[in-house]
């Protein structure tokens, strides 16, 4: 509160937001939510796409190249979707794409960037209720606040 007894709005909040985006509906909603939060709080948004490594791509000739081309197409579409969902372009942001385990990559990016919050979409896969989704693993790590968007 200020000395006059009124609240100050917009001075606190996240300064660095990491959002995991994989192309699913829930991750696109998470990206749009993260964009809006970044816009309202003046935060920097780091959108992260993690392309899972597939052992099958190394077993077939040209498999790695085909996987890379597909991944590049997905990333281009995700960039377009994220910016379209934002409606406005007045957010400091970057888009990273890496290969690996989604939890490991998101955790590393969040640690490296000193993220104030990590935002991901809820998993729609039934098996994740038993073995743990990326969102559950991030929450259990307990190193950052995690918002899971349905």
From TrEMBL:
It holds the Pfam family Usp. Transmembrane segments: none annotated. It comes from the Bacteria. Residues 15-150 form the UspA domain. PANTHER family: STRESS RESPONSE PROTEIN NHAX, UNIVERSAL STRESS PROTEIN UP12. SUPFAM superfamilies: Adenine nucleotide alpha hydrolases-like. Belongs to the universal stress protein A family. Gene3D superfamilies: HUPs. This is Universal stress protein. It comes from Actinomadura meridiana.
């Amino acid at each position: 509160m200020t000395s006059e007894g009124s609240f100050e709005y917009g001075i606190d909040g996240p300064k660095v937001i990491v959002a995991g985006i994989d192309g699913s509906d829930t991750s696109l909603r998470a990206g749009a939510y993260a964009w809006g939060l970044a816009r309202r709080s003046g935060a920097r948004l780091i959108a992260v796409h993690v392309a899972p490594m597939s052992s099958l791509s190394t077993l077939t000739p040209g498999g790695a190249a085909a996987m890379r081309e597909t991944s590049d197409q997905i990333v281009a579409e995700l960039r377009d979707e994220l910016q379209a969902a934002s409606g406005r372009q007045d957010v400091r942001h970057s888009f990273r794409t890496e290969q690996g385990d989604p939890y490991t990559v998101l955790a590393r990016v969040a640690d490296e960037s000193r993220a104030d919050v990590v935002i991901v979409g809820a998993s729609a896969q039934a098996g994740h209720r038993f073995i743990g989704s990326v969102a559950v693993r991030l929450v259990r790590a307990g190193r950052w606040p995690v918002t899971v968007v349905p």
